[in-house]
Amino acid sequence: MCRLGIYVSIGQYKFLEEYIRAFYLASINDIALEKLRYGRRSHNHGWGFIYIAKRFNNLSLSWYKTSLPIMDRDVETILKNTISLDADWIAINIHSRLTSREPIDILNSHPFYVSIPGKISLWLIHNGSVDKEKISKILGLDNIKDLYADSYFLANLIARNLNSLNNNDIIEVFRSLIDMDITTSALNLSILSIDEKTKEISIAILNYMVQDVLDDNNMREYYNIYIANIDSKTFIAGSSTVMWYLTKIVKIAIQPLSNGELIIIKPYENSLEISSFKLL
What we know:
- This is Glutamine amidotransferase type-2 domain-containing protein.
- By secondary structure, this protein is an alpha+beta fold.
- The protein has one domain (2-278): 4-Layer Sandwich (Glutamine Phosphoribosylpyrophosphate, subunit 1, domain 1).
- 30% of the residues lie in helices and 32% in strands.
- The protein is built from 9 helices and 13 strands.
- It has helices at 16-28, 31-36, 72-82, 132-139, 150-161, 167-179, 211-214, 217-223, 240-249; strands spanning 2-10, 47-55, 58-66, 89-97, 112-116, 120-127, 188-195, 201-207, 225-228, 234-239, 254-256, 261-267, 272-278.
- The strands form 2 sheets. The protein has a 7-stranded antiparallel sheet with strand order 3-2-4-1-10-9-11, covered by helices on one side. Strands 5-6-7-8-12-13 form a 6-stranded antiparallel sheet, with helices on one face.
């Protein structure tokens, strides 16, 4: 059980500070989590982010994660000080973690990084649970399944099967994940990827929940990913309570992604290419 945050902007960084604040508040005081965990409100089993920016026609990257709980001073000094407001564009994936059965350590904090040399580098953040036994066997890594959380194996499965950052290839990988029947609660995730040859950047967001989650109003509201209607140069998405907090801080409209919806964002010099696909 986790909180996800996705922010992409071309040059203007609208509501960035407010969004970071909303993510922090949702991580430490989550009203949707309280309904599911008998009064527990905090995602305090680690946090992290992947940040990529283009400045002076070059890419820069910062990847941070810790098994310590997210704290206000860390958000201020680590995350905010990382962001370059003079960049042509920035892309950030943020994650805070809560687990009931997986190890709490630096290996299992998100984002998970996987590189397929000469092809793809990607960082994954995930909310939900998948069949670790099944995926680790597919990967031939079942001998280390107790060392890593399920999302680690999910990241490796995606990287192994993603041939390029072409939209059709991304769609094929995520549709196959749904068809493989590996999801035990939700496959709500975002991957930030770099094509190692072309240096193209892509952010892919999937919102998918199994029927048992969809049938439970509290579970569905906890897991749903929402997007904000901002403008053509800023894209904001996140877990339900992240976005609810944001609407309390600034007056914006939000809407949930449909089940099985995939959003692909590609930042360019002067525009964001945003595409939506229904996989169900």
